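Worked example 4.2. Below are the chains of a multi-component assembly; read each line carefully before continuing.
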Amino acid sequence: MKSRVADGWLIVGYGSRLRGDDAVGPRAARILSRRGYRALAVDQLSPELAETMAKARAVVFVDADVRVAAGEVEVAPIPAAAARAAVLEHHSTPEALLELARELYGATPEAWRVGIGGADFGLGRPLSAAARRGLRRAVAAIIALSKPDSPPRRAP
Amino acid sequence: MRKITIEPVTRIEGHAKITIHLGEDGKVDRTQFHVTQVRGFEKFVEGRPFYEMPAITARICGICPVSHMLASAKACDAIMAVRIPRAAALLREAIHCGQFVQSHALSFFHLSAPDLLLGMDSEITRRNVLGLAEKHPDLARDGIALRKFGQRVIERLAGERIHPPGIVPGGVAAPLSAPGRDAILKELPEAMAIARRTLDLFKTILDGFASEIANFGCMPTMYAGLVDPAGALRLYDGRIRFRAATGEVAAEFEAEDYAQWIGESAMPASYLKSPYFKPLGYPQGTYRVGPLARLNTAERCGTPAADAELAEFRARFGRVVESSFHYHYARLIEIVYALERLEALLNSPAILEEHVRARAAVNALEGVGVAEAPRGILIHHYKVDEQGAMKWANLIVATGHNNLAINRSVEQVSRYYVDGNHLQEGMLNRVSAVVRAYDPCLSCSTHAGGLVPLRIQLVSAEGVVLDEIASR
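Applying the procedure described above to all two chains together yields the following structure tokens:
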């Protein structure tokens, strides 16, 4: 089996690859996959991911975030308490998937959300310069986060 | 006159609302199921090269893109006037079986099982997959495993789980390797075990839904589905057959003749077309498509385990089963059929043949492609110019075929359950649940996050909001 860096870490990059900067999450996942991470690039979060997440020690959700300034990156732990308040339908959230992983598989991986600020979410648009800048920052942040000597981490 | 609005209808694919108009006595006067989104694919594909159509129309949906790709590729095959290689036909059908498994699993386990196993009147904030996971973890795990199996079939055979690049005009993009085939065959028994035990469980809870069975779209309509020359169920290819409510075959024709038999109308305040059976006119020509309609239309499934289940289904509910509540039952039988059919296709030596794509330019200026999507018959009809640029497109999607029947079902459920003088959430959930039984696919759009965003308003004849119930 191919050895992986950041053993036990799972990166989930999600968003539409047809909607400009919304593709930044999947792009981050592909970059990290090429660097040896276990990383999934998906259009949206779906319940099936819970099973994959349950096998991970830590999960990082990477998504475009309109609340973050264009080109900036916000890294935040997902508190376990938030997961327990989640609701899930066929479109879901990181918190809902974490609760599903706990409920069905008894798994409680550490979880982080990495939000990347975008500038252009138009149909068929390429990544904006700001999103590309944010993408580089996000990849660097995830690599730093997953280093064995980085401080942990699960928020209360 | 007062009005109740359910908007959005939850646990369906896409955006819709339901209006229920009440008389002065609080009883239901009339209802309508509205599709409130417009997609516009038929118009904006004009001018594109026809061979782009499978990739473009796949984007109509994130749940059943394979069905659109297949119907589109078949319309393109007709424009090229080619007969696709044998292995390509087998692979397309195998991919389609994977699509049926994953889509039907989504509908049953994730969208409808919360109603069926937690109860129509259960606590709304837990009436979802998480609530199901809490109360029925084995079933929830089975749902996830079965859907993943279907997605892996699509990924292995067509390249990606969603919007796969492997289905192309003239065939498929790449042949199947023996290891790829064996990997799927190895996982098939577990998928079948899940399907069988889910069906067994479902049969045990049916008696608890006598009221829903009698009132969830329990009405005489016609039914339509694809069949082979012997009348057996077909998902990838076949003739379109209409069966009357009385059981007789009313019509059977090739896909390219659809316009002679299927008319298209429209309703005010809805973007969804309303197809009807032309010989009976509008709206008398209401018909249903999808799992229940397919089982009503076909003589048999054509695989042993599914045929045994179909025989039991008919013994219990009759040769032509009227209640739309039984879409759930039919859907589970079709999962068994799709898995059996997948196994047979993979065990065909021809599926490993290397020649998988026929190539040609434009040889006909018009083409029709038809396939059974999980929700019912899907028709793509294209016209092109001599250079192959799209001049015109007509798409009739499964949920469109069901539009008139869904509307009648909503009315029937509303009349039976809804009392405007004593509104309760469970009443409205049943109205939504009958829509979910059809598993309508209004688009690949996602739903609002947070709590189930159910909002019910009572509005006076003057438009004044008299009362409102919201989920929070």
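Take a moment to check your reading of the output against the notes. Chain A touches chain B through 20 residues (CB under 8 Å). The radius of gyration of chain A is 15 Å.
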